[in-house]
Amino acid sequence: MYTGKITVSQLSQLKMIPDGQCIIPQSIYDYGWLACLPIVNIITLPQISNCIALDFSKDSIIDYLIRNNDKDLFWKFQNKNSHFISKSEMSEYNLYSAREQNIANRLEKNGFVYPCNMQEVIGLFIKLGIMIECPDNQSEIKMDLIILPFPKPDTLLGII
Fold first, then answer.
1. Distance (Å, rounded) from C-alpha 123 to C-alpha 112?
2. Residues 76-95: tens digit of each pLDDT
3. pTM to 2 decimals?
4. Which of 40, 61, 99, 144 is most exposed, with minimal Cβ within 10 Å?
5. Phi, psi (rounded to 5 degrees) for 132
6. Is 15 left (phi over 0), alpha (psi -120 to 50) or beta?
7. Which residues fall within 8 angstroms of residue 105, CB to CB, at 6 or more apart?
């Protein structure tokens, strides 16, 4: 189905994605999305793109993400680890903690939810307009990743 957008599914159907590779929209970097997305969304985006290119359904993508990722990808704000091996480890933890807390706060202020599971990871991408749901002929919901036009974080996450 043509949506007026360039997407990963379209590129895959046109055989423009080499086997074993995934497409990440350049706008993720250019528009500063890496500073706005939870780490779990950043880490899983290449996997999601690959699943879309392989024509997985939404449910199959979520199952794939659950099977192939550690539960520790999700930041646990309430479980601060006080047993660090070194000051460097503690510093790294504090940086990640501050980053994820800032992102969670910004998402919440703008009406979004910080993801706690893979369904919410996909849901956040959809709500931000980075991905779309596409019903297919077999009553399955497929996912697609937008390449162009790509949303800008300033328009969706304007409240800092």
1. 10
2. 766 666 677 888 888 888 89
3. 0.87
4. 99
5. -130, 155
6. left
7. none
The stretches of the chain forming alpha helices (DSSP H) are 8-13, 27-30, 39-53, 58-68, 87-109, 118-127, 153-156
Contact 39, 121 (CB under 8 A): no
Between CA 108 and CA 106 the distance in angstroms is: 5
SS3 136: coil
AA identity, residue 128: L
**134: DSSP letter:** E
Contacts of 109 (CB under 8 A, 6+ apart): 159, 160
CB 132 within 8 A of CB 126: yes
Give domain limits for the chain: 8-155
- Rounded to whole angstroms, the Cα distance separating 17 from 55 reads 13
